[in-house]
Fold:
Amino acid sequence: MRHGKKFNHLGRTSAHRKAMLANMGCSLIEHKRINTTVAKAKALKQFIEPLITKAKTENNQTTEKGTHNRRVVFSNLRSKEAVTELFSNVAEKVGDRPGGYTRIIKLGNRLGDNADMAMIELVDFNELYNAGKPKKKSTRRSRRGGAAKKAETPAPAAETKTDDSEE
Structure:
């Protein structure tokens, strides 16, 4: 039974798993995308997204809380260069995003052992996917506001149909 197992242990001891995720997290921050197995990519996503959130909220806080967040992230990543990159460049790019900082793209199977491979990347650093899309507003709307819009939109559409039938 798997009661209470919250994360994938990846067939490693806890020290090996923490070191591996720290190394993969540093590589992801440095290179903005890495290739790995699907299981490791999912584990890395759970590991790195809270750290990016801490880096993002650090810019809006006082110096003491910012220092605390840097120390918490450093205890997980264990690399000064990665922490500096995360808190400067990455935090600026993801400042308006409310979560979902990484994207996992499945690549197929590895030739040697047929393992499922995936590419994990930081979403805001891929210009190919973000080129055609305009920036969305980061406002949240209630459900009642959406229902009122739906009631208004069919009326003008019906009017255009009558105009076409007259011609």
Notes: The chain has a mean pLDDT of 85.
